[in-house]
Every structure is written in structure tokens, then in C-alpha cells.
């Protein structure tokens, strides 16, 4: 059980045996959804691989009780995810890969802002989920670092260290939805992460047009006035700071030629 989460602005604990969360007296959240290996096989390089039966736990709409009305008004939602340690055959523990469904209130596929709490993460993202994936990035991040996925991009979150669980929080649109069909039709995203001697290497998915993968480290996103403080604490400081998540249409120029 990890109680470090209060350092990131919320009084909650992360559990790994079994996977899940518990909340402090002033925090509310749902029972976590457990993603099992059988549910994500269609997005893996080797659908028949062995791995933990419970791959990750996800809780969407975690908040302090006194913040809930403000979050609803701003169409914002905070999610927390924790992964099992280990591997999925030759692949690391990872999410399935998806694109966000278009939100009715904005007309956009919303962005998402991640903050790593525990472990080592790679946020993989590609510009499109068509045969030509466009620009592809692998953003390597550790505890306290933030990674922004822009609107409409396909993405997956990867645990880069099989020896420890990965835990992260994220700001999302309240009308969030995950679309998997295009990714599953290509049997995954454009690049497969593979573990070799506990290090990540990359293999191109031949169902996409060949391209280049850029490995980068997180930046500050000063164009959105983000600071180094925990992202939930930044909301408490300035509730309007994350409107670019729920209303990406209001800052459309910032997404042109976006670089993670």
C-alpha cells in the first residue's frame, strides 16, 4: 500500500495486492475498474502472452468533496491509474492504446495531462490512428513529471520498469470516452515497446506506413501556464488553469504543430 499520493494533492492510498485505491475522509472516488489481461489482448503484439491477470486499475472522477461542483462546472475530471509490476510476455505492462471520443460540449477529441506519481513511464503518442500515423513520440517521465497528449492523438501509457508498479494521475474531459476500434484494427499502435534486459526497445508495427519514432523527455508546457507543482494542487490554486483540457477549441492555435 502506497500513501505517497497525498504529496500530489489528494488524500488517497494506492493498493497493489489487490490493485485498487482507498480514499481519505475528504476525497471521493468510484470503485476502480480492473482491466484484465483477457480484455486487452487484442491490442498487444502477442495476444497469447502471459502476464498478470489484473493488469491495471483505473478510477475516473477522483476529487476532494468540496471541489466536485467546480469540476462539474468546468467539465473537468481527475483520474488515477495504477499498474501491476511485471510484464506482458515480451512487452511491458501497458494500456491498450486508444484515441479520445469527441466530446459533445466542445466538438473536439480532448487532450489529457498526465502526472507520474510512482515508477517510470513512457507516454507513447502518434498523430493519427490511420495507416499513416504521422509524428510518433515516446515521452519518458518519472515521478512528478507531466506529459500532455494533444487532441485527437492515439496514445498508450507504458510502464518502463517491470520491477515496480506505475501510478499516475491525469486531468481529463468530464465527457471522456475511449475509442479502441482503429487501434485494434491495426493490432496496436504504430510502435510496439519490448523489454530487453529490463530496458525498452521499439519494434515498428508493419500494419502502419514506416516512419520515425522520437524519444523525448517532458517539457514545461509554459504556453498553458503550467508549473512544477502537482497538477491537482494547480487546480486548487487556479481553477481555470485547466480549461484547455475541456475546451481545447478555445486555444486551437496552441495545438498546431504541437510538440510534446
Q: What descriptors fit this protein?
A:
260 residues, mainly beta, Jelly Rolls, six-stranded antiparallel sheet, four-stranded mixed sheet, 12% helix, globular
Strand content: 35-45%
- Largest beta-sheet characterization: 6 strands, antiparallel
Q: What CATH architecture label applies?
A: Sandwich
Shape: globular
Order of helices and strands: EEEEHEEHEEEEEEEEEEEHEEEHHH
What is the assigned CATH homologous superfamily? Jelly Rolls
Number of helices: 6
Q: Can you give the helix content as a percent range?
A: 10-25%
Number of beta-strand segments? 20
User: Alpha-carbon distance between the termini?
Assistant: 32 Å
Question: Care to describe what's here?
Answer:
- The structure is a single chain.
- The chain is 12% helix and 36% strand.
- With 260 residues, it is mainly beta.
- It has one domain (12-255): Jelly Rolls, CATH 2.60.120.
- A 6-stranded antiparallel sheet has the order 4-5-7-16-11-14. Strands 15-12-13-20 form a 4-stranded mixed sheet, with no helix packed on it.
- A hairpin with a 2-residue loop joins strand 1 and strand 2.
- The longest helix is centred in the last third of the chain and has 7 residues, at 231-237.
- The protein starts with 11 loop residues before the first strand and ends in a 5-residue tail after the last helix.
- 40% of the residues are buried.
